[in-house]
Design goal:
Layout lengths: L1 E6 L5 E5 L9 E12 L2 H9 L3 H7 L1 H14 L1 H12 L2 E3 L3 E9 L11 E5 L9 E5 L3 E3 L6 H4 L2 H14 L6 E5 L3 H12 L3 E5 L3 H9 L4 E3 L5 H10 L4 E6 L2 E2 L3 H9 E9 L2 E2 L5 H7 L2 E4 L10 H4 L14 H13 L9 E6 L3 H10 L6 E5 L4 H5 L2 E4 L16 E6 L3 H12 L4 E7 L3 H11 L3 E3 L2 H5 L6 E4 L6 H10 L3 E4 L7 H14 L4 E3 L7 H10 L7 E7 L12 H4 L2 H17 L5 E6 L6 E6 L5 E7 L9 E7 L2 E6 L3 E7 L4 E5 L11 H14 L7 H20 L3 E5 L2
Helix pairs in contact: 3-4, 6-7, 6-13, 19-20, 23-25
């Protein structure tokens, strides 16, 4: 196998062929997928190796002291041979990686061959194709987390342990000095903990990055900007904690820490910077200086790291292994985002050149990853299967007399956007409204003229006189209620989303297959909007691939909104994103074949790129941080020298190159109110139920849109395009 090594005497870096390590008891053999270069720790070691002997001695006075002691004990000749022998040997590099378990040693029962694990340790998580890793230095990677992101596990644990040592609390203000790799992670961890953060670094690019990742303000430590930000955020009292994540020989960080700390604040040293503490400044404020020892409790304890003896959780809550697992969990849940920190991914065979470029300054990076052979496709091409609709369709019966409707749910959307269009419609009878609370059912009955109000859904589903059921409840219940209504033989109109998980979608399709009832419509109303329908007609047919750009200025949710209950109701995009995917697919007359999604920190603003069979693409920008006064939805369709433009369902236009001159169509007038197609959609659904004709949107299209919407979350977690594979 191959491994990156360095000769500390000559400074030579090389990728050597070395024997494969054995799989000893108490650990696992891991084949590397990605390993992370620590641009701070490792480059410091690489730089030291290139120094003269005097330079090496000056940089490592601790080692010089050991040499002096050895001379006193063993004499000069023996000590010289020992030192030169050690210097003139190859030493390994690396300490943070992600890989696949290839062999399991005896005594290991928490992982199996094929599992993805993150590994730690400067003797066990090396830049090598294979590593033997003891039990307490690896953690299983959560499902869906990209291997290249999991490779940050060790440095994430270092940052996490530093934050723990600071004992931050909600509402605290912290100063992070040094915005390299560790500093950027500390910023995100503190922000996720409810702490407001000020960053200090002389590099404006790193300052800007930290602000994008959650810092309230950042600036050069030598400028007045940092002090002004601290004064503003703390009312002049000073920060509660200072995290020293800087390196180098300057004493500026510890002096700045003393100046900007509050009385009895805490200063936590995470990096390796000069620590000549100005006695008066630290004494007068009685500052608490703490050191953060690497990944956490257990580090440097051979019984813990090598023998696998864990510390009881009741006495040591966060060991280095538990820190590693915790950081991976934060990554998987989107609480920390490492993708913006990845400056460069290099093939493992190019390791020596990559180190040279970093050392010479040709490659300026926060984090660099080595990618190992055999993992490119496996790590970066996840796929989601679009379920096949298998149904022996039962003949659809036409309604006898008025179409009798039941509503499951009577919330804001139902009472404002659906029922007003149905209450006065000829040929429609509002039969029964079902809600979980008696009063809301009574209110809906009174306002819209339902014949009955009840809380008993089973009675409604068992009523043979009811032709169709509207499911307009909270998102988490849509799939189950739809499934039950289909099995009861009802036509179903369900508001988006149809399902929040692939299993829920599979359950709905199983009900279709079992019952033969495919009378289903999802509330994707925008394709029915008259203005958009007219614009597409004016745009005409196309011959080449098209590009759609869809900006959704979704805005902030009110505090307490149930849309914020992502654990039960799914993400905002899972709940609403199907609207925009369906609209794009309708405009392009096809279903997407892949989805790529990226997000800002915290997944507040999403960029979703859909690719279609003919090479067309649709980019949906779903943002929550825009100005509330800006229109919610703007859309452009470009193809064949033509442009269709939609301005928030208020005005539409089409521009075309007519050969002899430009042609332009603009909607003749501004509608009195935005018509997003609900009325036309309901009319089409009622007509299908009355006549027994096909549903307004084919079931295959509803399934494809739902699958693509679900794939967005998979893409965010995996950090790579998701292929939408059709089941055979």
């Amino acid at each position: 196998m191959k491994q990156v090594v360095q000769n500390y005497k000559s400074g030579e870096l090389a990728v050597l062929d070395v024997p494969v390590p054995g799989c000893k008891p108490g650990g696992v053999l891991v084949r590397s997928a990605y390993s992370l270069i620590s641009t701070g720790t490792e480059l410091m070691k690489v730089s030291e190796a290139g120094m003269s002997m005097l330079g090496k001695a000056r940089s490592r006075p601790d080692q010089v002291a050991k040499v002096v002691q050895s001379v006193a004990t063993n004499g000069v000749p023996a000590t010289y041979r020992k030192v030169m022998g050690k210097l003139d040997s190859y030493t390994p590099l690396g300490y943070s990686l992600c890989g696949v378990v290839e062999q399991v040693g005896t005594g290991i029962d928490d992982v199996k061959v094929g599992d993805l694990v993150a590994c730690a340790g400067n003797e066990h998580a090396l830049h090598a194709e294979l590593n033997w890793v003891p039990k307490n230095l690896y953690a299983r990677v959560p499902d869906g987390l990209a291997p290249r992101h999991a490779a940050f596990g060790t440095v994430g644990s270092i940052a996490l342990q530093g934050v723990r040592r600071g004992e931050s609390q909600l509402g605290d203000v912290a100063l992070v000095i040094g915005l390299g790799l560790i500093g950027q992670l500390v910023v995100q961890l503190l922000t996720a903990s409810g702490v407001r953060v000020v960053g200090a670094d002389p590099d404006p690019v790193r300052c800007e990055l930290a602000e994008r990742l959650g810092a309230a303000a950042c600036g050069d430590p030598a400028s007045a900007a940092v002090e002004a930000a601290v004064t503003e955020l703390t009312g002049g009292h000073g920060v509660d904690q200072v995290y020293l994540a800087a390196g180098g020989g300057s004493n500026q960080p510890v002096e700045l820490a003393a100046r900007l700390s509050r009385d009895r604040g805490r200063v936590v040293d995470i990096g390796k910077c000069r620590l000549d503490l100005p006695w008066n400044a630290y004494y007068e404020k009685e500052l608490d200086v703490r050191f953060s020892r690497s990944y956490g409790p257990g580090r440097y304890d051979p019984e813990y790291e090598l023998d696998g003896r864990d510390y009881p959780i009741g006495y040591v809550r966060w060991t280095e292994r538990r820190n590693l697992a915790c950081f991976l969990d934060l990554l998987a849940r989107g609480r920390v985002d490492v993708e913006p920190l990845v400056s460069h991914i290099a093939d493992f065979d190019d390791a020596v050149e990559t180190y040279r470029r970093l050392k010479d300054g040709d490659l300026k990076a926060v984090a660099v990853l080595f990618r190992y052979p055999g993992h490119e496709v496996e790590a970066e091409a996840p796929a989601v299967t679009v379920p096949t609709v298998n149904v022996r369709r039962s003949p659809a019966r036409a309604a006898k007399g008025p179409v009798r409707l039941a509503f499951a749910g009577a919330g804001n959307y139902a009472t404002s956007m659906l029922l007003p269009h149905l209450a006065q419609r000829d040929g429609v009878e509002l039969s029964t409204v079902v809600t979980t609370t008696a009063l809301s059912a009574a209110n809906a009955k009174r306002k819209f003229g339902f014949a009955e109000a009840t809380t008993d859904l089973d009675a409604v589903l068992g009523d043979p006189s009811i032709d169709a059921v509207f499911v307009v409840t909270r998102h988490s219940s849509h799939a189950e209620l739809t499934r039950r209504a289909l099995l009861a033989g009802k036509a179903v109109f369900v508001e988006k989303p149809l399902a929040l998980t692939e299993d829920e979608l599979a359950g709905v399709l199983a009900a279709v297959e079992e019952s033969g009832n495919d009378r289903l419509q999802v509330g994707f109303n925008r394709r029915f909007a008259p203005l958009l329908q007219e614009a597409r007609k004016r745009f005409g047919a196309r011959t080449g691939p098209a590009s759609v750009r869809y900006l959704v200025n979704a805005g902030r949710l009110a505090h307490g909104s149930w849309y914020l209950q992502q654990g039960t109701e799914g993400s905002r995009f899972a709940g609403e994103g199907g609207h925009f995917i369906d609209t794009a697919s309708w405009l392009l007359e096809a279903d997407p074949v892949s989805v790529y999604a990226v997000a800002t920190s915290g997944n507040e603003d999403l960029q979703v790129v859909l690719r279609y069979p003919d090479g067309s693409t649709a980019t949906i920008s779903y943002v929550t941080t825009g100005a509330p006064g800006f229109p919610k939805e703007t859309l452009d369709l470009v193809a064949d020298g033509k442009v269709l433009k939609l301005d928030d369902f208020v005005r539409a236009s089409v521009f075309a190159d007519g050969g002899v001159g430009r042609k332009r169509w603009v909607s003749s007038r501004l509608p009195k109110a935005r018509d997003k197609g609900q009325n036309a959609e309901l009319a089409a659904f009622i007509r299908a139920v009355r006549t027994g004709g096909p549903m307004p949107v084919p079931l295959e299209s509803l399934v494809a849109t739902t699958t693509a919407t679900l794939a967005v979350q998979a893409g965010l977690v995996g950090g790579a395009p998701v292929t939408l594979a059709r089941a055979r």
